[in-house]
Design goal:
With about 220 residues, the protein is α+β, with helices and mostly antiparallel strands. It has eight helices and four strands, in the order ααααββααββαα. It has a four-stranded antiparallel β-sheet with strand order 1-2-4-3, with helices on one face. It is globular and about 40 Å long. It binds protoporphyrin IX containing FE (HEM).
């Protein structure tokens, strides 16, 4: 069963527990990560709680009676801090998605990958863009996956050691060069830049709730 099928099945089970539906829908994509946080540690209402809700599909300690193999909602493995901790990373992503209209982005294909420019006229958003990219760079370097319900993100993190990500802070945000020597990984890098981040910036939260298809020509496992 794939993570998305599992999400669907978990969601179906949660229908008789409406309070679980939104968190479950959101868990798989936004917060499926190696780190978990205590349920109830959210500070900004339902959506924030959703973003922080816990680790990825099918690997957590379970939600309690009846949920069996589901995602963990409680404190779990790997709770430590990394680049501000998982909760802070998710708050940054949440704010970027909420303020997506203030973000401008350019993506250029270069040999072996992409060069991107991601900026905002808002100093606050510009700083969040920078924080997010440093945090994600660290995740890639350490091989600490997130958004594991999304096949593209699963594939990217599976190849994390073949990805080079260079960040340059520029006025309003960051310029990034992301490359690989492996042509299959180049496909993933470009798909992430063009189809994931570009669409997050264009559409915000509704897009972030959807998976990203693997790129055409990619032959690895999702
Ligand atoms: C408006 C929202 C977002 C913005 C502006 C943004 C921005 C960026 C930028 C600039 C990069 C560097 C790579 C590139 O430029 O293509 C990046 C990488 C990354 N982002 Fe985001 N992002 C957003 C949403 C998200 C979301 C919703 C997630 C996951 C829940 C996420 C996870 C990642 C990861 C894992 C990486 C490193 C993977 C890689 O670069 O291959 N981002 N993001």
């Amino acid at each position: 069963m794939t993570d998305f099928q599992r999400t669907k099945s978990l969601t179906a089970r949660a229908v008789c527990r409406p309070s679980l539906v939104l968190p479950l829908l959101s868990l798989a994509l936004l917060s499926a990560c190696t780190k978990s946080v205590p349920a109830g540690s959210a500070s900004n209402g339902q959506e924030q709680q959703t973003l922080e809700a816990g680790p990825g599909m099918g690997h957590g300690p379970g939600m309690g009676p009846g949920m069996g193999h589901g995602p963990g909602m409680g404190p779990g493995r790997g709770m430590g801090m990394m680049g501000g901790g998982h909760r802070q990373e998710m708050q940054t992503i949440h704010t970027l998605l909420a303020r997506h209209e203030s973000i401008r982005r350019e993506v250029e294909d270069i040999p072996g990958g992409v060069r991107t420019l991601t900026v905002s006229e808002s100093p606050e958003v510009a700083q969040l863009i920078r924080e997010h990219v440093w945090q994600m760079k660290k995740r890639l370097e350490l091989g600490q996956p997130m958004r594991r319900g999304d096949p593209l993100f699963r594939a990217l993190f599976a190849h994390h050691d073949a990805i080079h990500l260079e960040v340059e802070e520029v006025p309003g945000g960051v310029r990034v060069e992301e490359t690989s020597e492996d042509p299959q990984v180049v496909l993933l890098i470009r798909q992430h830049a063009h189809r994931a981040v570009n669409e997050f910036v264009e559409q915000g939260m509704p897009r972030a709730m959807q998976p990203t298809p693997l790129p055409e020509g990619y032959q690895g496992t999702p």
